[in-house]
């Protein structure tokens, strides 16, 4: 496909970080045609990581989470339609159907609708049960946990659940975390580093129960009173936060002709079809270096992928370059900053190369078949970033160990 005309109409579906970065990059690369940004929420683009941390804690106001000022948004000359959801895509007709009954034609399309939190079946109408994905979710959870006497139960010890647990514990609440796996984040970090995350909760007085299956909720008069476990006991709760992962928001794309498989499938350049690119949590792109498809749900990927998607769209499918990131994420829990680079697997070899796990300050590296696959740090940001060029260059596990010895 030829490069996209700089006067063409481009629609960006999704007003989160990926969508905003795509819109900004389109303008920075010279696109001057109509640029429509559709956002299902009524809020201007905002940052999600603070929702489980500073905003929930009350240490930041709304002004701190807005991604761009009014002046910077106006400078982009966007047709920004907030509270407007795309409901279907006619790929052949180059047209979006909208929830207000209207349609929107386009020449180029960026899909960045993100992901939606998974809910416990049958709990949608129970008072006191919360999900956390949006500003409105955060405001509701903050109100529900305003009283320090509130007993909070968090279902799921992933990043969102663990951050909410840490934040609410810091506000004086009694917090219990329930996790089905033997250790938190085992699928992402492996058993050894997952155990280090588990130790954080215990060291700060949060009750963590692992290997625990939830069977349902104890409900009285329409409100939650506890969480029922498969072994028969009930954990008392005034408020429950469900943090059991997210699913890419692709339902509206059923029947569009795009390949949907735990996300929107794209090639290495982020093209899902001619003139259609993907970015952020819903993007499943071909990672040529790893020889597999990949979908990443972290902030840095959304930012970088949004910009790359814009470049690819303008270049056209044939000339666009492959997206080759070194994945990075972070999580703030209690007084510890957890950071990771790369794409390790849970069964990779892990070696602590700096500091001490017991002291909650260390760097560990991951390796598989002699190749460096990732690095993780607890409160060691400078030391961690030294591994980025090694991961970019496909370094061996031994080279990574030598870096710390030098």
Give structural notes:
The protein has 3 domains: 10-116 and 247-315, FAD/NAD(P)-binding domain (3-Layer(bba) Sandwich); 119-244, FAD/NAD(P)-binding domain; 335-405, FAD/NAD-linked reductase, C-terminal dimerisation domain (Enolase-like, domain 1, 2-Layer Sandwich), CATH 3.30.390.30. It has 10 helices and 27 strands. The chain has helices at 17-28, 54-57, 70-75, 135-144, 159-170, 186-203, 299-315, 381-385, 388-392, 397-405; strands at residues 10-13, 35-39, 79-82, 86-90, 95-98, 103-105, 108-111, 115-117, 129-130, 151-155, 174-178, 207-209, 214-220, 223-229, 234-236, 239-242, 246-248, 264-265, 271-273, 276-278, 283-287, 292-294, 328-333, 336-342, 349-356, 361-368, 371-378. It has a 6-stranded mixed sheet, covered by helices on one side. The N and C termini lie far apart (49 Å).
Q: CATH class of the largest domain, anyone? A: Alpha Beta
By helix and strand content, what is the structural category?
alpha/beta
Q: Mind describing the biggest β-sheet?
A: 6 strands, mixed
Strands, count: 27
Low-confidence stretches: none
User: Whole-number average pLDDT?
Assistant: 95
Please report which band the strand proportion falls in: under 5%, 5-15%, 15-25%, 25-35%, 35-45% or over 45%.
25-35%
Note the total helix count.
10
Radius of gyration, Cα only, in angstroms? 22 Å
Major sheet: arrangement of strands: 3-2-1-7-20-19
Query: What's the architecture of the largest domain in CATH terms?
Result: 3-Layer(bba) Sandwich
- Helix fraction bin: 10-25%
State the separation between the terminal residues, measured CA to CA.
49 Å
The CATH superfamily label of the largest domain reads FAD/NAD(P)-binding domain
Number of domains: 3
What CATH calls the topology of the largest domain is FAD/NAD(P)-binding domain
Q: Describe the global form.
A: globular
């Amino acid at each position: 496909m030829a490069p996209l005309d700089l006067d063409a109409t481009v629609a960006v579906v999704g007003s989160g970080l990926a969508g905003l970065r795509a819109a900004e990059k389109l303008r920075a690369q010279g696109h001057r045609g109509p640029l429509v940004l559709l956002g299902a929420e009524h809020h201007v683009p905002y940052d999600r990581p603070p929702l489980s941390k500073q905003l929930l804690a009350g240490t930041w106001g709304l002004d701190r989470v807005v991604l761009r000022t009014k002046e910077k948004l106006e400078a982009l000359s966007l047709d920004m339609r907030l509270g407007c959801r795309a409901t279907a895509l006619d790929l052949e007709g180059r047209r979006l159907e909208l929830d207000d009954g209207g349609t929107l034609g386009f020449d180029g399309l960026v899909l960045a609708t993100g992901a939606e939190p998974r809910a416990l079946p049958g709990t949608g109408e129970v008072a006191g049960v919360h999900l956390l994905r949006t500003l409105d979710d955060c405001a509701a959870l903050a109100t529900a946990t305003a009283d320090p006497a509130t007993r909070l139960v968090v279902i799921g010890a992933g990043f969102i659940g663990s951050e909410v647990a840490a934040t609410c514990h810091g506000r004086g609440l009694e917090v219990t975390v329930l996790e089905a796996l033997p250790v938190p984040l085992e699928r992402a970090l492996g058993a050894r580093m997952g155990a280090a995350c588990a130790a954080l909760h215990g060291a700060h007085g949060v009750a963590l129960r692992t290997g625990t299956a939830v069977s349902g909720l104890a409900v009285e008069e329409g409100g939650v009173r506890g969480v029922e476990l498969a072994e028969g006991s009930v954990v008392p709760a005034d408020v429950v936060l469900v943090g059991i992962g997210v699913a890419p928001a692709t339902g509206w794309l059923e029947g569009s002709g795009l390949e949907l498989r735990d996300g929107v499938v794209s090639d290495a350049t982020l093209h899902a079809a001619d003139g259609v690119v993907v970015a952020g949590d819903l993007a499943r792109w071909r990672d040529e270096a790893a020889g597999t498809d990949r979908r990443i749900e972290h902030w840095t990927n959304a930012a970088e992928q949004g910009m790359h998607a814009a470049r690819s769209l303008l270049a056209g499918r044939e000339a666009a370059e492959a997206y080759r990131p070194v994945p990075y994420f972070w999580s703030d829990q209690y007084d510890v900053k957890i950071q990771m680079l790369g794409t390790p697997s849970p069964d990779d070899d892990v070696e602590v190369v700096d500091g001490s796990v017991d002291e909650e300050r260390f760097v560990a590296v991951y390796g598989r078949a002699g190749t460096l696959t990732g690095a993780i740090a607890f409160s060691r940001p400078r030391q961690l970033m030294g591994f980025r060029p090694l991961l970019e260059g496909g370094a061996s596990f031994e080279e990574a160990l030598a870096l710390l010895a030098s």
